[in-house]
Amino acid sequence: MENQNKIYIIIPTYNEKNNIGTIIDEIFNLHIDNLNILVVDDNSPDGTGQLVDDLKSKYSNLHILHRQGKMGLGTAYVAGFKHALKAGADLIFEMDADFSHKPEYIPQFLEKIKSCDLVLGSRYTRGGKIINWNLMRRLISRFGNIYAQVILFLPIKDLTGGFKCYKRQVLESIDINELSSVGYNFQIETTYRAYQKGFKIKELPITFTERQIGTSKFEFKIIIESFLKVLFLRFKK
Ligand SMILES: Nc1nc2c(ncn2[C@@H]2O[C@H](COP(=O)(O)OP(=O)(O)O)[C@@H](O)[C@H]2O)c(=O)[nH]1
Ligand SMILES: [Mg+2]
């Protein structure tokens, strides 16, 4: 696929040995020009980081940041953003390693970002879907998104998703050092900040499939914390 922009796809990983190799292959198999993948690995005990290092001889556009230990999704993204901006990226993606975010959507993101500044992979816009979530998880996510939408006055249906494409100007103008480190809030906050700055945001309907391999970070404690943090965000300048 022809493309002038320098693209960085940031994939944070913690114990994704059985996913990361295949997802990297699938993304590079799209044959998109100027596409780089940056894995941010938190010293995964299962050897994910080593596996990516080994793949670097196969793919010259594959990069990895090794961090000392598990420091959370938000800080992993911030480290990745800084690296990508420094490397001169024009478009920066967030994407999970676990195949919930299908590589085949990347060309659709690239098409949509031509007419806006931030594209959100959206499960809750018309045409979006979730596969393999139980009723409880669906309800919590749906309610959480409506709650954040109402509290923050945002006309956006999916605020907690982690499949996103930013123009570099967005990341340059929101203060990425000040973002929440909890995954869900990190996603809400980046989009909220972009909206506050007047950037144009569009939602791209995606089918999100729960991971088949490995374990999710979904925890009740985090959900409660996330609800409270949305309130703080509302009243924070
Ligand atoms: N670097 C890093 N990656 C993480 C951390 N926690 C989760 N991830 C990665 O972030 C992505 C999303 O995590 P996941 O557990 O699937 O969350 P869920 O999709 O919300 O259930 C996956 O690629 C994980 O490997 C972390 O603390 N550090
Ligand atoms: Mg997941």
Notes on the protein architecture:
The chain is an alpha/beta fold and 237 residues long. It has 8 helices and 9 strands. It has one domain: Alpha-Beta Complex (Spore Coat Polysaccharide Biosynthesis Protein SpsA, Chain A). Strand 2, helix 2 and strand 3 form a beta-alpha-beta unit. Helix 1 packs parallel to helix 2 and helix 7 runs parallel beside helix 8. It is globular and about 50 Å long. It binds guanosine-5'-diphosphate (GDP) and magnesium ion. The site of magnesium ion (MG) has 5 residues, from loops.
Comma- or semicolon-separated keywords:
9 strands, two-stranded parallel ribbon, Spore Coat Polysaccharide Biosynthesis Protein SpsA, Chain A, 8 helices, 237 residues, alpha/beta, seven-stranded mixed β-sheet, binds guanosine-5'-diphosphate
Report mean pLDDT, rounded to a whole number.
96
Instruction: Give the % helix.
Output: 25-40%
Give me the CATH fold name.
Spore Coat Polysaccharide Biosynthesis Protein SpsA, Chain A
Share in β-strands: 15-25%
Structural class: alpha/beta
Shape: globular
Characterize the biggest β-sheet: 7 strands, mixed
Name the CATH class.
Answer: Alpha Beta
- Give the distance, in angstroms, between the N- and C-terminal Cα atoms: 42 Å
What is the CATH architecture annotation? Alpha-Beta Complex
Total of helices: 8
Spans with pLDDT under 50 lasting ≥5 residues? none
Tell me the domain tally: 1
- Compounds present? guanosine-5'-diphosphate, magnesium ion
- So, the CATH homologous superfamily? Spore Coat Polysaccharide Biosynthesis Protein SpsA, Chain A
Give the spatial strand order of the biggest sheet. 3-2-1-4-7-5-8
Radius of gyration, in angstroms, nearest whole number = 17 Å
Q: Report the count of strand segments.
A: 9
SSE order: EHEHEHEHEEHEHHEEH
